[in-house]
Amino acid sequence: MTKVAFVAPRYGPRVIGGAEAQVRDAARGLAARGHEVEVLTTCAEDHHTWANSLPPGVEVEEGVTIRRFETVPSSDPLLWASIERRMHAGEKLSPSDELAWVSGRLMVPELYLYLAEAASRYDAIIYSPYLFWTTLYCLPLAPEKSILIPCLHDEDYAYLEVVRACLAGAAGVWFLSEPEHQLAHRLAPLGSHQVTGGGVHVPEGYDPDGFRERYNLERPFVLYAGRREGGKGWPEAMAGFGAALLRHALPLDLVTFGTGQADIPPLLSRRVIDLGYLEPEEVPNAFAAASAYLQPSRNESFSRTIMEAWLAGTPVIANSAGAVVAWHCERSGGGILYGDETELGECLRLVAEEPKVAAGLAASAREYVLSNYRWPTVLDLMEKELERFG
Amino acid sequence: MRVLVVGSLPPPISERSRGLLAEVLRLRAEGAQVEILSPRANTVAHHHIAAPGPAAALEIGLAARGFDEIVLQLEPGFPFTASAGRAGRAAGLGALSTALKVIRRPVTLRLASVHDLPGGPGGRAAESLWATAKRIEAGDEATFEALAATLSPAAAQKLALAVAPLELKAGRPAGNLAGGASLEDATLLVRARAAEDRRVIVRGCGDPVAEVPLGEWLPRPGVGVPFPAQAQAPVRPQEPLGRRAGRVLVHAADGVSLTRPLARSVRLARKLARRY
Q1: What digits encode the pLDDT tens for the residues A235-287?
Q2: Would an 8 Å CB–CB cutoff place A113 in contact with chain B?
Q3: Is the peptide bond prior to B79 cis by the omega test (within 30 degrees of 0)?
Q4: A14 falls in which pLDDT band (50, 70, 90)?
Q5: What is the C-alpha separation between B129 and B95, in angstroms, rounded?
Q6: What's the pTM value of the predicted model, to 2 decimals?
Q7: Using the 8-state DSSP alphabet, how is residue B68 labeled?
Q8: pLDDT tens digits, one per residue of B146-181
Q9: B273 CB near a chain A CB, below 8 Å?
Q10: Which one of B181, B211, B250, B264 is CB 3.0 to 4.6 Å from B185, fit for a cystine?
Q11: In the 3-class helix/strand/coil scheme, how is A322-357 assigned residue by residue?
Q12: How many domains does chain A have?
């Protein structure tokens, strides 16, 4: 059995995000299999402010020891904003600019010092996701025992030299999907690596009718779950939904839950319903109650939510620009892809007018998830990889 | 005991930064509560010095309140910039020794390499700095010898060798090719080795970042940014109107070379006021 540390910028039951959920489930899963697992993380829950909302120190949760360290705010947020603009304008950044950008959102010096002291006590240190100070600064402390679960997206940040150095320098890299793996090969020369896939829990049952009743959802609806923000395509999803309502007079609502401000325009306030944060036990019911799940994000390395939708027998409508989601949809046959607002409108129309056809798509997709992405399968692969480090 | 360590930890991972990291870990192992104030931007630290040159001494003086001891590492760019002449060197060293005298805390001065102090460890300004120290640590034997030969007898009595730099292992080896390797394998290996070379950004010894003068770490508005992005001042939601107007004015002033020093002074003053 190995002694493993996961290093993640945020950790906890109220932290929303695919990478964060992946780390939490993997940590608990490995602990349940007898590995000694620690999580080294920050006191922050909000990835916008990085405020220290939880106390620093050590706690134990479901067999996992969690060590929290306080974040230190950036000394120059204006510099960060200026570099961010230059990066998106296509300018090549200098090494000092790259480091300034990485340090511009949060720094966790106490975590770094702890790892400098304690790295030798662990057999393997698993960092995830790629884009944070906690990974990019700390991984080079002990690269020979570092495993990176990057959760890569094809975005400007992925092309930074500092990211390339971590991808190339880690002793192991674990990918959640084949398109992410291919992207990494385009970014950096890789050492030992493996597509472990992401894991999802299979709920014991669903209560779609109860869910509609509890939340007074009278009309059929499409669902969006997760972070309501520009990077995840939420504003475009609302705009496309609004256009489809006007064009096709659809009898559908758009229901959403998760974190971030939904910022629903007044014109759509009666047709877009924000449920805010849902308790974990209610989440599967939401997926089962939906007529379809809408995935507008192009920045996914696994897309846990589409797996949850397929498990619940719900078809997916997805942005074809997201390579990973498109790959899953094509392999499983459970998702319809749209390339623009017009196609999104037609996808929604199909769901509204041909619900049986839409539901039929999801039937084979449940089997796809069960065969590839159940946690026992993923943990077997992770354990096999960890044998090299033990 | 609370100790303020002034100096640069990684990145980049160099002999100097590993040496200071080892010292920080030693202090923590002894039970000290350590905070790091770095003269170089983007290194691992609790705080970063906002102003280069003699102004940094003022910041160290302010930051030292509430600490029982100071450990201060002299580095290229600190306490005077790499381009400073004799007067700049004297001003930087003089300001620092004055600040250390005023704060009246036990001070350990570190010099990882004699090359880290342009102009050498001798001279009146440097002597006044050595005189403020309770202990002087040299990073290696050559530096120890150079200091022993230069310092006054009183200062030389405080001289000691620093703890050895923390060992950090190299990353994944790039690997070797077998006899019948394809062109693709060879290309991959060449790229892997090139990546290893480039990795100095993060953990390297070539230290390209370290050579950037401290002034270059400041933002340079206008470089490579399209006009609309330059013209748009950063806006923070729910910020009071007066403060927002001030920010926009400072941003505009920073875009004009004539008023840029004024804008930077205002920003620095605000930053120091916020911090202390």
Answers
A1: 999 999 998 888 888 899 999 999 888 989 888 888 999 999 899 899 999 99
A2: yes
A3: yes
A4: confident
A5: 9
A6: 0.76
A7: S
A8: 999 999 999 999 999 998 888 776 555 434 444 333
A9: no
A10: B181
A11: CHHHHHHHHHHCCEEEECCHHHHHHHHHHHHHCHHH
A12: 2
* Cα-based angle B251, B252, B256 (whole degrees, multiple of 5): 115
DSSP classification of residue A381:
H
Distances in Å between the alpha carbon of B275 and those of A39, A112, B46, B64? Answer: 31, 23, 12, 12
Size (chain B), residues: 276
Residue in B with minimal Cα distance to A133:
B44
H or E segment and range at residue A26: helix A18-32
* Residue B246 touches chain A, beta carbons under 8 Å: no
Closest by CA position to A8, among listed A130, A160, A173, A92: A130
Tell me if A89 and B9 make a contact (CB, 8 A cut-off). Answer: no
Q: Are residues A288 and A380 in the same domain?
A: no
| β-strands B33-38, B47-48 pairing | parallel
Indicate the pLDDT class of residue B216, thresholds 50, 70 and 90.
Answer: very low
Judgement on whether residues A195 and A87 belong to the same structural domain of the protein: yes
The verdict on A34 and A58 lying in the same domain is yes
- Relative to beta strand A316-319, strand A172-175 is unpaired
Range of the domain at A294: 208-372
pLDDT tops 50 at residue B229: no
pLDDT digits (tens, 9 = 90+) for A22-40: 999 999 999 999 999 999 9
* A-contacting residues in B 187-226 (Cβ below 8 Å): 188, 191-192, 195-196, 198-199, 201-203, 208-209, 212, 216-219, 221, 223-226
Q: What confidence score (pLDDT) does residue B169 get? A: 65
Q: Is the dihedral of CA A200, A206, A212, A218 positive or negative?
A: positive
DSSP state of B199: T
Helices (H), A90-225: 95-103, 109-118, 133-136, 161-169, 178-187, 208-214
Pairing of strands B135-138, A3-7: unpaired
Q: Parallel, antiparallel, or unpaired for β B135-138 and B107-111?
A: parallel
Structure tokens at B18: 């590993």
Q: What is the dihedral of CA B222, B224, B229, B231, to 10 degrees?
A: 20
- pLDDT given at position A248: 85
Claim to verify: residue A151 and residue A265 sit in the same structural domain: no
Kindly state whether residues A286 and A175 are assigned to the same domain.
Answer: no
In this structure, are A249 and A159 located in the same domain? no
Partner-chain residue, chosen from B41, B46, B168, that has the shortest CB–CB distance to A141: B168
Let me know whether A51 and A131 are in one domain: yes
Residues in chain A closer than 8 A to B255 (CB atoms): none
Q: Which of residues 324-353 of A touch B (CB under 8 A)?
A: none
- A378 and A368 assigned to the same domain: no
pLDDT tens digits for range A140-186: 999 999 999 999 989 999 999 999 999 999 999 999 999 999 999 99
Query: How many Å apart are CA A52 and CA A73, to the nearest integer?
Result: 10
